[in-house]
Amino acid sequence: MGKIISFCNQKGGVGKSTSVINAGAYLSALGRKVLLVDLDSQGNTTSGLGLKPREIQETSYLVIMGNLPAAKAIKNTELAGMDIIPANQDLAGATVELVHFEDRDLKLKKALEAEKQNYDYILIDCPPSLGILTVNALMASDEVIIPVQCEYYALEGLGQLLETINLLKNHLGAHIQIKGALLTMFDRRNRLSREIVKEMRRNFPGYVFEAIIPRNVYLAEAPSFSKTILQHDPYSHGAKAYRQFAEEILKIDGYKN
Asked: What tens digit of pLDDT does each residue of 117-176 get?
């Protein structure tokens, strides 16, 4: 059975989509079968892989609403071993529509259950909020990875996210565990970046990945070419960091590469 991991932080611009795309790329390159689930109506993960959100009919919106089996929404990517359930603007309406369902918090969990046997990893790109879509992602997930940018206000909202996860575990029976925090947008020349790394490791010992994602021009421009960093520039610092991150995930999970 595969493992479902949400990439979650209610702050925008922390590198969630970039991390989902590139972690998925390297996990698949290292021999794992990966499914990405775009749960953000902005569709950055979708467009970052060369799909055009406005032209796609079968999306995560229909899946989470129960109108389409997950298997019918899965699209292949250019990378062997990595597929995606895409998103578009339709997903914005789900926040209001899901309120009317008694099982509104479990819709995604039920939809993805059958796919766990087909993939080693299912990675969910959460929207930048703690609304019902994110709750669905967390309820469906075995683990959560929290991207944290190495910038001012980096820790803002982190406590609220951890509190939300505990509430889901205590009151809704979620089985989710925190896999770790992934430090992103690190600039070694910047004293604040270095201080945030120290602060995170001091405040969350054992919960911060060793891999640190640098601020990197090749990472930033790869989505504009509809490429993962593995395809765009596999020798860049950003590529090496995401490979290390993927290897770390596999090591934690007991895989040998």
From this structure: 999 999 999 999 889 999 999 999 999 999 999 887 777 778 788 888 888 888 888 889
The answer regarding whether domain 3-252 maps to CATH 3.40.50.300 reads yes
Which residue stretches of the chain are H helix?
16-29, 44-48, 60-64, 70-73, 94-97, 107-112, 132-140, 158-171, 191-203, 217-221, 229-232, 237-252
What is the reported pTM? Answer: 0.95
Sheet containing 3-7: give its strands across: 75-76, 82-85, 34-38, 121-125, 3-7, 143-149, 177-186, 208-214
Q: What is the DSSP letter of 89?
A: G
CB 132 within 8 A of CB 162: no
Query: 37-54: buried (b, 16+ CB within 10 Å) or exposed (e) per residue?
Result: bbbbbbbbbbbbbebebe
| Cβ(211)–Cβ(181) below 8 Å | no
